[in-house]
UniProtKB/TrEMBL annotation, chain A:
Transmembrane segment boundaries: none
Stretches assigned to the ATP-grasp domain: 166-361
PROSITE patterns, per the entry: ATP_GRASP, BC, CPSASE_1, CPSASE_2
Domain Biotin carboxylation positions: 45-492
Keywords from the named record: ATP-binding, Biotin, Ligase, Lipid metabolism, Magnesium, Metal-binding, Nucleotide-binding
Entry's Gene Ontology cellular component terms: mitochondrion
GO molecular function, one term: metal ion binding
Database matches in SMART domains: Biotin_carb_C
UniProt-recorded name of the protein: Propionyl-CoA carboxylase subunit alpha
InterPro entries: ATP-grasp (IPR011761), ATP_grasp_subdomain_1 (IPR013815), BC-like_N (IPR005481), Biotin_carboxylase_complex (IPR050856), Biotin_carboxylation_dom (IPR011764), Biotin_COase_C (IPR005482), CPAse_ATP-bd (IPR005479), PCC_BT (IPR041265)
CDD domains: biotinyl_domain
GO biological processes: lipid metabolic process
Taxonomic source organism: Oreochromis aureus (Israeli tilapia)
Automatic annotation (TrEMBL), chain B:
InterPro entries documented for this protein: AccD/PCCB, AcCoA_carboxyl_beta, ClpP/crotonase-like_dom_sf, COA_CT_C, COA_CT_N
Provenance organism: Oreochromis aureus
Reaction(s) this enzyme catalyzes, per UniProt: propanoyl-CoA + hydrogencarbonate + ATP = (S)-methylmalonyl-CoA + ADP + phosphate + H(+); butanoyl-CoA + hydrogencarbonate + ATP = (2S)-ethylmalonyl-CoA + ADP + phosphate + H(+)
GO CC, any one term: mitochondrion
GO MF: propionyl-CoA carboxylase activity
Uppermost EC category: ligase
Annotated protein name in UniProt: Propionyl-CoA carboxylase beta chain, mitochondrial
Pathway(s) where this gene product acts: Metabolic intermediate metabolism; propanoyl-CoA degradation; succinyl-CoA from propanoyl-CoA: step 1/3
UniProt xrefs under PROSITE patterns: COA_CT_CTER, COA_CT_NTER
Residues of the CoA carboxyltransferase N-terminal domain: 36-308
Amino acid sequence: MAAHSVPSTLKRLLFAVKYSPLQSRCCAVQREAQYSTISIPSEKTFDKILIANRGEIACRVIKTCKKMGIQTVAVHSDVDSSAVHVKMADEAVCVGSAPTSKSYLNMDAIMDAIRVTGAQAVHPGYGFLSENKEFAKRLAAEGVAFIGPDTHAIQAMGDKIESKLIAKAAKVNTIPGFDGVVKTAEEAVKIAQEIGYPVMIKASAGGGGKGMRIAWNDEETREGFRFSSQEAASSFGDDRLLIEKYIDNPRHIEIQVLADKHGNALWLNERECSIQRRNQKVVEEAPSTFLDPVTRRAMGEQAVQLAKAVQYSSAGTVEFLVDSKKNFYFLEMNTRLQVEHPITECITGLDLVEQMIRVAKGYQLQHTQDDIPINGWAIECRVYAEDPYKSFGLPSIGRLSQYQEPLDLDKVRVDSGIQEGSDISIYYDPMISKLITYGATRAEALGRMEDALDNYVIRGVTHNIPLLREIITHPRFVSGHISTNFLPEVYPDGFKGHQLEADAKRELLASAAVLYITAELRSAKVLGTQRVASTPVECSHWELCVELGEERQDVEISKSGTVYTVEMDGAKVEVWGALNLASPLLPLTINGTQRMLQCLSRDAAGVIVLQYLGTLFKVRVLSKLAAELNSYMPEKVSEDTSSILRSPMPGTVVAVSVKPGDTVKSVHCKPGETVGEGDLLVELE
Amino acid sequence: KEEAISLVTRVKYGAVSATVPQTSLHRSCRWYSVSHLSVKERIDQKRQAALQGGGQQRIEAQHKRGKLTARERVQLLLDPESFVETDMFVEHRCADFGMEQDRNKFPGDSVVTGRGRINGRLVYVFSQRGNSILCDILFVLQDFTVFGGSLSGAHAQKICKIMDQAMTVGAPVIGLNDSGGARIQEGVESLAGYADIFLRNVMASGVIPQISLIMGPCAGGAVYSPALTDFTFMVKDTSYLFITGPDVVKSVTNEDVTQEELGGAKTHTTVSGVAHRAFENDIEALLNLREFFNFLPLSNQDPAPIRESHDSSDRLVPSLDSIVPLESTKAYDMLDIIHAIVDERDFFEIMPNYAKNIVVGFARMNGRTVGIVGNQPKVASGCLDINSSVKGARFVRFCDAFNIPIITFVDVPGFLPGTAQEYGGIIRHGAKLLFAFAEATVPKITIITRKAYGGAYDVMSSKHLRGDVNYAWPTAEVAVMGAKGAVQIIFRGKENQAEAEAEYVEKFANPFPAAVRGFVDDIIEPATTRKKICQDLEMLASKKQVNPWKKHANIPL
């Protein structure tokens, strides 16, 4: 289904022409969008929709509205007044200051914006007010359509216990467990035996892994009960414990559902979201390598049963944990459009936002379950402004001094709400974009993702592309052998960047040397003057020394035409490429393989920072003479950091529990103050 | 020997004294007995002695200090095999204190001089031999202290010779300074040598670019040669510049101060403004100097150099459309604008850590060297004060002297008020920047990004000071002052201040008042700034403008 109909293609073209001055990049996305909006001219939905969100999801919703001929209203905080979603929308209303509680969560201001602009419906995106039943109620009271499920469904699925009970009643597999409080160790053992090992004992008031124990037999259950109740008592002042089945090597697989207000519901296949850090998804794909058609159908049908049980309408997601034996258990239902919805759109061809708008207007679903295909494979990487070397990602902030999405590549979709010059601030989610690639097979989609990550230019903030590229090329990921523990298992000591093998290291050093030579040759190209050496020596052979970390490598380079032959360690590397020294991208052919490197900086002292295989490497290239003499240069003593505390990430200081005199010499921050990464917070005595 | 290095000796030079680390004693005297050799052999032997400097041990001692020898520095600075040495056979002429003996004479004396090329372009160089030769051998011979690399009459004569030639052919002079000061044995001859160099520094000023890289101690009278040159760079931790050392300071003012605090790279690049930039070590300094040299024309008769550019001249910079915050009190980084506009984001900033409220430095537009001046809203709102005025003025004058077009980015709320500034002479110093912009005849392009308030608007390369092309961004506010202050004066004592303020903003806090009077030539989209500047520079390449004849102007020093 979903073949591009002529009218819709035309519409897309019109769209591209009309809005290109606003957001040329977004239009480029449109060209290759892996979903198609099929608006039926006679099917009138809304004249004007307000999008109560910001960033990429606001832009995403606006795009579909444009295609459907719907006017759009953006809301924004003061700091977002020149944000992309504001520029894309037909109208924009400022709803308050930067903190989300004052703007994007400010229901009064948003209700005012709806009244002022006369919007007939509101798309809440995800986060913010998307699952807020109060907001849905207030909209209903004013006769404004909420593009999402009914209040009843939001409420039912919003409560963890109630949703589990409803799911149980709807014959959806739930994690076996004891719903009441366990009083004694012996009772715990009895329940554990009933559930079947392994089991998890956890604090009723728990969170963050505190008061949580996994037990594989009776003995461990007794012990676990004791420890957990102690820990729960001390951590939460509440020693009540629950027991449930422990899911070994769990995968997080979710089913997209779509339902209308007429009792029809479909499942749009699954999304595999097991690659997570701190319970936040990092890489998602659809379909999952793990599910067979039978399991998929079973999960899909249960998801639909649940949706029907709560009279669900609109798009929603039913999350499951799947164990190594393909047993699946209901986790929760998200009553909104998910961040990772694009991969479902890629494999099914549906425009979920369009379907949500239709359903909100009361139309019946256009499709039946048999219409829903799995066409190819889609991968999504969440590109974040964060430092992946710190706990797989601590937020980073800054201004995107250079920003170039890899949209000239085939079958790449980038959902973003920022552009070159945008600020990533501490106020909002540090997501830069969602990078989606698509292919007939998983291998094809993964290959494209590698290229897309290598071609993605982001400067001004630290980003997680090094980690993303490592994940998608890791043998365990490539083979599909993943679970929610993937990151801590694969990188038990934390992420350290790409580990270079001998060949790759030679390629990197050779590339740096070639870049150095290109810059050196260019320096001598002074135009329009007679006052240069009358017999310029066209140099074609160089002896250099390239340093990477502690390693030093002598290299010899000879140039013939545009081919550089770099010799080191008795091995030869051939590098071909006419480099543009102004471009952040360095397309090189190294020993016959095409590689996209990026140059982040290049200074007079020979230090070149290259992004190679996703990771940043600091290489230093010096002439042989300079390298020999460099060994005499004194080592600079770096700052003694044993007695100071610096901020690991930018943010707001919530509280300061020490004052000068009590074990600290000085305090350099105040509660409520914003600090940057590396700012001095406290000096110890 | 290690502890000997830390030995510190003191030498009096008139009222001046300086302190330098002194080296260990080596009992390895070289003995020249040349009479029985043929002339050819004598030439070879002298040449060899000149090349070796103080011998392997001396070289090693210098390396141990984290410093390179004079000759190594020259080799690194210049293109391979391009160095042509002069006066290798010159020896000092001192006849006192046993200095006249052959064994105390060294071919080339305590400085290496000559010419060479940097990326194919001619340059004259002198490189003082620091503590590396004369110090040791004289120390062995005579039991009194001598600074290495000390300046003898012969030493000065060698430097003067290359400076004279640099002037006649029109090529820059780079001095690699590493000298203990005057050679005490020579007395007044040494002082005369300094003056000879000073005079040439002054004569060459504005004719050929002169650059000093301080790579060791430079104290007493010696500091004035770098001070007279166009740019002074320093090496961190190993170079010092001061008139009098810590000991004299202690005895005169009773201040306790270390060499580093008194005259180290940090002091001079952040507090005093004596040095224009500092680098980590000898190698980084020399490599950066090569990079810096690429920006400079060879003389005042040569145009600003044009290097092959990989950055297209009509590149649009969309990120600039949103760089100026909507609130006029909010800061942004002028460097973001500069990096985004210039070729390949390549900006060689001058004095990056001094008077940070103004940014100056060199960049290229479509390959051609330009001087950039910009107010920095991030620091003190980008206001002009004493230090930033002087910093900007000296840079503008350099550009004007050497045919380098000046591009000025304006976001200035005015001059900094206060007694400190008034007592310090902000009127006199602010006038320097005004003077410099007004007298400059090189192409001048000005972009008002936001505020251009009051007298500071006039100063910052305004149309009134013969700006060739003056642009305003849509965010520009050219006015006598900010809305709040203006309203308080115009509507003093009246109610509805807020309304009045809004009226003022509507009327004046935008580019129109200036544009309707022709004080800006156009209001441009920020994204097109690079493209426009490149086109304008091409047009202005043939600009000819001459100031009235005068002996010289009288800038308010």
